[in-house]
Amino acid sequence: MKAISWVRKNLFNGVFNSALTLATLALLYVSLKGILYWAFHEAKWNVVPDNMRLLMVGPFPPEEVWRVWAMLVLTLLVSGLLYGSVARVRPPSWMWIGALVFYFLVWPVIFPSTRFWLALALLALPVGMLLGPLIPRKWLTPISLLALAVILLLPTAVNPNQWGGFFLTILITIGVSLMAFPFGLLLALGRTGKLPVFRTLSILYIELIRGVPLVTVLFLSWIMVPLFVPEQWRLPDLISVSIGFSMFAAAYLAEYVRGGIQGVPKGQYEAAWALGLSGSQSARYIILPQAIRSVIPALIGQEIAIFKDTSLVYILGLFDLLYMALTVTKNPKYLGTDREVLLFVMFVYFAGAALMSYASRRLERAMGLGTR
Amino acid sequence: MEAIIHMENVNKWFGSLHVLKDINLDVQKGEVVVVIGPSGSGKSTLIRTINRLEEIQKGRIVVDGIELNRDVRNIDAVRKEVGMVFQSFNLFPHMTVLENITLAPRIVRKWPREKAEQIAMELLERVDIADQAEKYPAQLSGGQQQRVAIARALAMQPKIMLFDEPTSALDPEMVGEVLDAMKELARSGMTMLVVTHEMGFAREVADRVIFMDMGEIIEEGEPDQVFSNPRHERTQAFLARILH
To answer: I need a labelling partner for B78 at 20 to 30 A (CA). Which of A339, A353, B93, B108 fits?
Structure first.
């Protein structure tokens, strides 16, 4: 009854508003009808599950795909272990239920061979969280390092030119972030520091990079980086493009961190100096921790931008998610499925970005941003 | 006896503003000196030159036998021996009380964690807030924060303590607890230079009171003499205004 009175009060209060409401409904019906009809009757959604392996790992040899699965399972397991050990919380029930629901929803459309791995991947995170508190803390570092080594070794048996799909997208995102962050930090310190040479160089670099489009940087690094490397170690394109991408992202990260550094009150520097800390000690223990904490939302925003911008590497012929999607639509068997495949690609990017911004909000709350 | 702080013809300008004019000052070991004066008189700037938070353009400052000049090693050496307490506390908000206090001893003095923590707890005991060791600064009252700041400065085991208006940012009911900690410190024989408006504190523990105005030391002497019988008319006018 509440709903009816809400509708009367907000949508049908008066002749004019009632007319507007009806007109809007009519418009919505006309425009949505086509889309809904397409989505439920015409769209050949089976193109997505049929090509799932291509979309996820690209030209990765099918008999080696277990390596990617193992990387995923190990990553989730160790993340769960660390989180469970630090936060000391049991996995929430929605995690189990969500995993179960997801598993049975996709059950009919996945290949039998992947069902086993998918089950493992879905279980890895909550199981890790359960085991986390049981493991002595001093074992955590060796366990994580061992897992990291295994994760890094797993894909090396396959030529990097055969890495592809969403797997490659993720790899580029992580690799670029890891390279760009320390470089961005150095640039931010250089730009806010006292040494004129470093300050000028940092400003020049940051402003130059921020003044050019990412595509040009990617193209240039694709052509240029190999020139700096001896002929006999032919770098995979993946590496040269990632280097260019990192150099680009670092300029933006540097500006965010600089904002954070300039937001730290002068009294913090004075207190650090008065205690006898040197300039670099103050930066490391006092200024940067506060600066980075205050710009975490912006940093994660940049992280999301990196994730989405990896789609640009498709023009350089790297087999990322977008490249594989466009390849699938060129398969004569799936002609005319561009809309289905592109919508799926958008959904994957959206889900990834949503996950990252969710993690960012959790992180902010855990660190008590704005409260201390 | 050699003074532990020696200032000779010290001059400082902020741009064209002459904030310290020919300051000559000797502080003996164990002496408690209170600096008073109207705002903008240069008293904060004066004590901030002693650990080189402010650079001087002319003159000489020697602290515990170390010449304060452009040499970074000398500046670092002086800062190790000089503790400072600020008006706005300046605790590190991302660290617990215990971490605030142990940071400098651990990374500057290179003490092992156990030793630094043990001394930190003794100091917290001394300023009467040992039960707050695991809290973050934002969870403490102003008076508690300032006492943590005192403990943090003392943890480096300095020979000299500088106080820059330590009670000016506090609610009135918290001034007493901070002054008590400072009085206890003064009685223990610490060399102290205190910029403050707390005349009661000056009367009770100062060995010497310095009155500054417009960047100059106008008058100095024992507290009784300066407060009851000021010689200079500017001192008289200032005291009349704040003592009513």
So the answer is: B93
